[in-house]
Structure formats: C-alpha cells, structure tokens
Batch of 2 targets.
Target 1
Amino acid sequence: MSGFGLERQRQIFLDGLCGRKPAIPIQPAALEEGARRVMTPEGFAYVAGGAGAEVTLRAKRAAFERWAIVPRVLRDVAARDATVELFGRRLPAPLVLAPVGVLEMAHPEADLAVARAAARVGVPLIFSSQASHPMEACAAAMGDGPRWFQLYWNAVDAVMESFVRRAVACGCDAIVLTVDTTLIGWRPRDLDLAYLPFLHGKGIANYVSDPIFRASLADPGDAVERFAATFPRPSLSWADLPRLRALTKLPLLLKGILHPDDARRALDAGVDGLVVSNHGGRQGRRDRGARRAARGGRGGGGAGARPRAARLRCADGRRCVQGARPGRCRGVHRSALRVRPGPGRRGGGGGGDRGSLGRLRSHPGARGLPHGARDRPGDADAGGLNPSGAARERYGWRRIGGVRLSPSI
Ligand SMILES: Cc1cc2nc3c(=O)[nH]c(=O)nc-3n(C[C@H](O)[C@H](O)[C@H](O)COP(=O)(O)O)c2cc1C
C-alpha cells in the first residue's frame, strides 16, 4: 500500500487538468452531507445516529480531534513500509475494516462493493453478521483477499454455530464476537422515525441464507419474525464463551471491550485478541471512549491505568471521586476500587497506538477446550426484539415484516 495515497492524490490533480473533479467529495463534512442527500432519512439516521443524547458519539469524535502526532522529519519516506503481521498473515497496513451492518441503506451493492475495494488494497474486511449480502457472496467478491467474520451470538446456538462453520468455509482468518450488543442501544434518531431496518427485512441476508435458520421456519415469510425472536441475546455471558472457543481453531477476538478487568478475563478465557470499541457510541449513552480505554499507563484510564478517582484522596485519606481539594468531597468514595496493572503495563499494551485493535496475541493454535455450555432450547425466546403476540396481531407482523426468501439465496 506504500504510495497509495500519493497515487490517488496525483490522479485527482491530473484529472483536474482535464476539468474533472472528484465525483465523491473528499472533505469529510461534504461527504457526510452528500450521503445525507442521497440516503433515505431512515438510512441516514441509522448510520449517523448514536445512543441517548449522543454524548458518547460526540466525545469519541472530540477525542480523535485531540489526538496529535509529532512528526519526525528528513527520514527518507520515498518508500514506506506500513506492513504488519497479524494472525499469521502479512497485511499491507495496520488496518482492518470494521463490520458495518445493513450497508444496503447506503448503496445497493452494499457489502459486495466494500468487499471488492478491501480485496483490491489487501485490507481485511470483517463481514458483519448483519450484512446485506450473504458472507459467501462477499467472500466470492474478494478472491484471495483477507476477511474475518463478526458474530452476533444468536439466541439459538445452532444458528450461531452454523454462522461460524460458514465463516470457516468462506476462508475467514478470524472470528470477532461482538459483546456490546446483547441489547440494542437506545437510539433516539431511529426511535423518532420508528424504524429498525431488520424489521423491514434489511441486514438479515446471513440469516435468510442460513440452512439452520431456514429449517426453523414454518413458512419462508416468517423470516423477519423469527429473526426478531432470536436476536439479540441478552443472556450471553462469560459462561458461554468456551462453547464458541471449542467450535473453531481460528483466532477469536472480542469486540466491545472497554474495561481492563474484562480484557484480562477475555484473555484468560483463551481469546486471542480484543477490539477496544464502544460501537461508535451507538450502544452506551456514556461509554468510556475506546481510545482512552485502550491506553495503558498513567492517566490513560484504560487497561493498566489507575483511574483518576483512585488517585484523589479526601482529607481523611479515603479515595474519592471529587476529593483532593478541601470542600470538594461530595461523599462519593471508591474504597472498594481495585485496578491492578493490566495487559497495557505488562508489555502487551492497551493497543491505543495500534488503532482500534487493542491487545492482540499471536494465535496459539488448537486449544481443545471442552464443550462447556449446555444446549439451551429456551433461548430461542430470549431475544430483545421479540414482539409479544398482541403486538404481532396489532401490527400485522407478517404483512409488514415478512420477507420472502428468494430462491437465489
Ligand atoms: C451503520 C453501522 C452499522 C454497524 N454494524 C455493526 C455490526 O453489524 N457489527 C458490529 O460489531 N459493529 C457494527 N458497527 C460498529 C462498527 O463496527 C464500529 O465499531 C464503529 O463504527 C466504530 O466505533 P469504535 O471505534 O468504537 O469501534 C456498526 C456501525 C455503524 C455506524
């Protein structure tokens, strides 16, 4: 990828000599505005919105704006090598494309277009569970290009297992289990428009193409209702992890880790990597920023850091949230707080300087963990989107939500 940016820049300016300007705006704000103009209000709200009053969303952007690099000069940058080795594969840059669901709301080619673009530059694409095209079609569009699979753990284990098997068959290099979306965030923009794409049959291509999911349908038109009844899975817990770990020898990452204790627990459970993420501010209303969470060391507040609250002390010596100066204590003490040095201090690093991918360990290969979790037949009804019978009746669920399975899927 060395020289890719330079090449693109040169092309744009040369086109300019012939009176051609880029069809797609380069300035981020103009790009966003252009997207808003061509997308439906519902599609734009879904992509651009965050949880609650979008405090986390804004804080995230502000954190990136504060981030600064002090360049060193006169170092001969004619040939640059940004390559990294990750899970046994040499990548052109320390960059992985995050899983983004329901891309059909942005463009009809959706994941297929992203897959082709990613393969062209050799950057891994993480296929979303909520993709608009089945993972097999995305894989076919990528040739040998690297790809990973992001998993939402369905309330029916057999569907989750089928997704993992398909991801392995698709040549995915890793499985990324998203752990911050066992409930869907409270997203006012979507709520104001009373619109959730999945209920309109969007972003469920991996389900309607799945043999196990399809076999569970009495009628193909029940797909949306069935999906809504089994997604997400609020009961997911650490006790479920061994079941997934035992399913595949592929590297396993957890996406959505922010707390150092969770990071340690994940690594202890045999997870190979962490994606330090707050889901772009779409899940929690006041989540700690991913960059801050990932940063180790003093003041970082992330894995390995002592939180500020732990350093402040009241006059009586108790650790305090406000403390330190006379009259500031409002009685909120952290006497029980213990944050031990985490992976960041032990040398692994919180990953803040390595992008969103936090601490990554090399894949140790087969683990041979036993099937730890039991079957849970009752889980099929545990999904957070599951409408009550009355609601189904009232809104004619099948009529508005039912999606016909096309024979081509
Ligand atoms: C429209 C949209 C759809 C997304 N879909 C998914 C998804 O299907 N699975 C997932 O794990 N994350 C999904 N994400 C979250 C992104 O993968 C990513 O975490 C986020 O955009 C960047 O925030 P972070 O730096 O906190 O990770 C989605 C984000 C957006 C904006």
Target 2
Amino acid sequence: MSAIPLVRIGEMVDGEIRPIEVDGRHLLLVNSEKGPSLIDRICPHAGGDLAKGKVVSSRIRCPTHSYLFNLETGVCPLGRREGWGPLAVYELFEREGQLCVEFAD
Ligand code: FES
C-alpha cells in the first residue's frame, strides 16, 4: 500500500463534486460542509451517476431518484431499510499538503 495524492488541501470549492479515476476505480471527491470526502461515483441503489448529483449540507443527492447519502458514512436511510447500499466511502488523509488515499488491494 502506498499513499496516492488526489488534490492539494484547500483546492476544492464549497459543494464541488470532482470525478477522478484512481487505480482503475471511478470515484468522486466531494467537498461538503463537513469537508472533503472520497466516494464511489456510481449510486448503490440503481447505478445513478453521482457526478451529476448535488451536495446538500453533508450529503449527496443522487440525480436518478433523489435519494440522499451521508458523505461520512455512505448510508442512505431508505437503503438501510430496504437492504441495499451503503455507498462506499474511502478514508482520506493529509500528506505533504495533499489529500491522499490508500487502497488495501
Ligand atoms: S440510482 Fe441513485 S437513488 Fe436510485
């Protein structure tokens, strides 16, 4: 495992949703009121493209069915009740002025 730098600290604007491809994975960097999050781009409900979603406080709204996912936990309350999801959320850390991620495999 090694740190993969994604973006400079403080570079993203409020509410920004930035698609990135890392290690063959299609991901989104999202800057909400709680700060930056790294999530899967594809919605776990029915495949909506969250890059076309909208940040709502500390959640992201899917453009397909408008469900909201917590950007810290990935949980959508409806998904928890119906048994799908959550959205994958990856841990970010700072190194040398960059936000970074590490993948286990
Ligand atoms: S595909 Fe995202 S909420 Fe249905």
